[in-house]
């Protein structure tokens, strides 16, 4: 009798221990999907060194009519690997939905000194000298650039794995969405706080947050590449799986824009941008 009791008690203790190991862990994983930025940050030991890119350029180019696809193909063939070799990162490159001559890309540096040093090394280096005419002949304007920083470290843009040419033979999938808010002077943090419920609704709609950025107000130490000084701006980035998810995001973003416009923290209506990743774009929808 006593022996049977001890065996039963031991089994109960073992069951409790197993629940303690598996229950909270599963719950934490489930909860993380609703947290800012969590869903788009896969664990990959090969990317551990690609962190702390605290200076971000949001570069929005205007390309000659009929040349955008060619520009994009040249761009992603030659430049992402070259910048990574020098210590920068190209988070992703995209063509704009509804604008046949628009090309957007995101480039990150660890700090402003690196921005000057790496850009000098690249634009005065052999690769650019060989390819400059090819790119510049297709380029109308390259000055629509915002210099940004992560709003907080945990809201930085994740560096996703490179597109695997064998396992991802169809190229980058998904759709990147972006909302740009023109904040009043000194109002970025307060605007971000007011917009946080909207960002939570975007995530609840299935869009994976890929970063929240704000204007980095510094002197341009590489003036050959100008950036805009008409800020401050707040930028929300997300990744949608498909067009249906994008439509849900658009509807929510429109309502959120109306709500935020009723306040006193915006200088203009928010801009919503839909971007199609080019085949080799790191920033894309990844299967869980």
Q: Any overview of this molecule?
A:
The chain is 38% helix and 24% strand. The chain has 288 residues and is α+β, with helices and mostly antiparallel strands. A hairpin with a 5-residue loop joins strand 2 (89-96) and strand 3. Helix 5 runs antiparallel to helix 6.
Q: Outline of this structure?
A:
The chain has 288 residues and is of the alpha+beta class.
Ordered list of secondary-structure elements with their pairings:
Blueprint: H1 2-32, E1 55-63, H2 68-85, E2 89-96, E3 102-109, H3 112-123, H4 126-136, E4 139-150, E5 175-182, H5 188-204, E6 208-215, E7 233-240, H6 243-261, E8 271-277
Antiparallel strand pairs: 1-3, 1-4, 2-3, 2-8, 4-6, 5-7, 5-8, 6-7
Helix pairs in contact: 5-6
Which tags fit this structure?
single chain, 288 residues, alpha+beta, Alpha-Beta Plaits, 8-stranded antiparallel beta barrel, 8 strands, disordered N terminus
Structure class: alpha+beta
What's the level 1 CATH class? Alpha Beta
Shape: globular
Mean pLDDT: 88
List the strand order in the largest sheet. Answer: 1-3-2-8-5-7-6-4
Helix content: 25-40%
């Amino acid at each position: 009798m006593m022996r049977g009791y001890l065996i039963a008690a031991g089994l109960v203790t073992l069951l409790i221990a197993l629940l303690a190991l598996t229950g909270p862990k599963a719950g934490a994983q489930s909860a993380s999907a609703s947290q800012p930025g969590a869903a788009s940050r896969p664990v990959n030991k090969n990317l551990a060194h690609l962190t702390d890119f605290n200076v971000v350029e949001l570069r929005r180019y205007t390309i000659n009519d009929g040349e955008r696809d060619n520009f994009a193909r040249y761009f992603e063939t030659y430049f992402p690997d070259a910048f990574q070799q020098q210590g920068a990162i190209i988070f992703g490159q995209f063509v704009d939905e509804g604008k046949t001559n628009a090309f957007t890309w995101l480039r990150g540096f660890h700090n402003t000194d690196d921005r000057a040093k790496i850009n000098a090394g690249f634009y005065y280096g052999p690769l650019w000298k060989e390819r400059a005419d090819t790119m510049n002949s297709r380029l109308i304007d390259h000055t629509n650039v915002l210099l940004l920083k992560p709003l907080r470290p945990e809201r930085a843009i994740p560096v996703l794995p490179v597109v695997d040419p064998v396992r991802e033979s169809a190229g980058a999938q998904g759709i990147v969405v972006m909302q740009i808010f023109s904040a009043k002077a000194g109002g970025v943090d307060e605007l971000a706080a007011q917009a946080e419920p909207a960002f939570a609704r975007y995530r609840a709609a299935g869009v994976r947050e890929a970063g929240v950025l704000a204007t980095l107000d510094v002197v341009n130490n590489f003036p050959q590449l100008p950036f805009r000084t008409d800020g401050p701006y707040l930028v929300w980035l997300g990744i949608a799986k498909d067009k249906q998810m994008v439509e849900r995001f658009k509807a929510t973003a429109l309502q959120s824009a109306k709500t935020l416009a009723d306040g006193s923290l915006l200088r203009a209506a928010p801009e919503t941008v839909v971007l199609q990743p080019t085949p080799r774009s790191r920033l894309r929808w990844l299967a869980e």
